[in-house]
Amino acid sequence: MSWNQRIASALQQRHAAHQWRQPVTLDSAQGTEVEVNGQRLINFCSNDYLGLANTGGDDLAAAAQRWGLGSGASHLVCGHSRAHQQLEEALAHHTGYPRALLFSTGYMANMGVINAFAQRGDLVLQDRLNHASLLDGAQLSRADFQRYHHLDYTHLQQRLQNFRESQANSSRQGLAMVVTDSIFSMDGDLADVAALSRICQQQDALLMVDDAHGLGVIGTNGGGVREHFGLSPAELPLYVGTLGKALGGFGAFVGADSDTIDYLIQFARPYIYTTALPPAVAEAMLGNLRRMKDNQLRQVLDGHIQHFRARALEAGLNLMDSVSPIQPLLVGAEDRTLELSQKLRQRGFWVTAIRPPTVPEGSSRLRITLTAAHHRDQIDALLDALIELCTDPQEPRS
């Protein structure tokens, strides 16, 4: 088989399985209402949970006047500016860690952390539904990689115990690392990070949590999963947060103790070998970090979530068990999920159809995301459309 034949075969298989994906081009700024190909759509697929994506424009413009466009180099050459340092200090303070380290993307942060720590002879254990960046990080490391059943901590403990028993007769004593999302991006459910912390302390395993969808959304002051569960930094030693979701910007960071941050500076290759975030972006993120602390935004968001779930469940919609802004409506078949997404688009709603390989076979879904910027009448209009489509005799439910 030639390379061209392999490519053609793979593309044909994607088409046949109703798994073909292409980007949709926006003709407007991100928001609850967007324009696509001349059509105005109410947007229910953005991760801009607090509606901050459009609030920092003036901050960015002012910062660009000072810093220009690019950083010019990686952090360790000459790309680390005072703006980067101030943002790292502010993120560390907000999340309660001694230090924070900026990465250019969440994907790079997860890859960098796992590969810096996991070595040959070690074991990386991950929740089966973790984000692709976490799974890829483990697969590309030299460590053994195993997954435990979703949110099944008995299964996790069994795998840790098996690893410890195998180490008894090994000449090299490996270390164990447990990695999880906080809020799972396609299901919207929340890991019991307090239970994971106890298990890791008992089993002498290193705990890493990707709080991409939790930072700004959960916790009394939007501090994320550590604040939500009342854990100390020592009880959650490796914390990854992103700036592109509730914070409405771009980039990512790791929160940890001082030695851990120094270790990542030495050994996290995506940090070492990547151009730093534009300093103007880093400075503008300070404004959104201040705005994110507004608890009224979280109160509005929580109210939207409760209202949406109450009406949807009362109508018999097949919602998955989520108390987060991510509200998946389970459909099942890929073609049916695509059809529903397209019919919602015709009614003026943008809701993404999520299909394999992003989710397991037979569990395709509409991924509805709510934000503090949505109006209640927009949410009710979406619910009316969903109820109509899913209760119409011509539109049988999955």
Automatic annotation (TrEMBL):
Pathway: Cofactor biosynthesis; biotin biosynthesis. Its cofactor is pyridoxal 5'-phosphate. GO terms for biological process: biotin biosynthetic process. Its EC number is 2.3.1.47. The modification N6-(pyridoxal phosphate)lysine is found at K245. Pfam families: Aminotran_1_2. GO terms for molecular function: 8-amino-7-oxononanoate synthase activity; pyridoxal phosphate binding. Residues 41-386 form the Aminotransferase class I/classII large domain. Keywords: Acyltransferase, Biotin biosynthesis, Pyridoxal phosphate, Transferase. Signal peptide: none annotated. InterPro entries: Aminotrans_II_pyridoxalP_BS, Aminotransferase_I/II_large, AON_synthase_class-II, AONS_Archaea/Proteobacteria, AONS_Proteobacteria, PyrdxlP-dep_Trfase, PyrdxlP-dep_Trfase_major, PyrdxlP-dep_Trfase_small. Transmembrane segments: none annotated. It is an enzyme of class 2 (transferase). Pyridoxal 5'-phosphate binds at G106, Y107, S185, H213, T242. Substrate binds at R21, H131, T358. It catalyses: 6-carboxyhexanoyl-[ACP] + L-alanine + H(+) = (8S)-8-amino-7-oxononanoate + holo-[ACP] + CO2. Belongs to the class-II pyridoxal-phosphate-dependent aminotransferase family. BioF subfamily. Homodimer. Catalyzes the decarboxylative condensation of pimeloyl-[acyl-carrier protein] and L-alanine to produce 8-amino-7-oxononanoate (AON), [acyl-carrier protein], and carbon dioxide. NCBIfam families: bioF (TIGR00858). This is 8-amino-7-oxononanoate synthase. It comes from Parathalassolituus penaei. The gene is bioF.
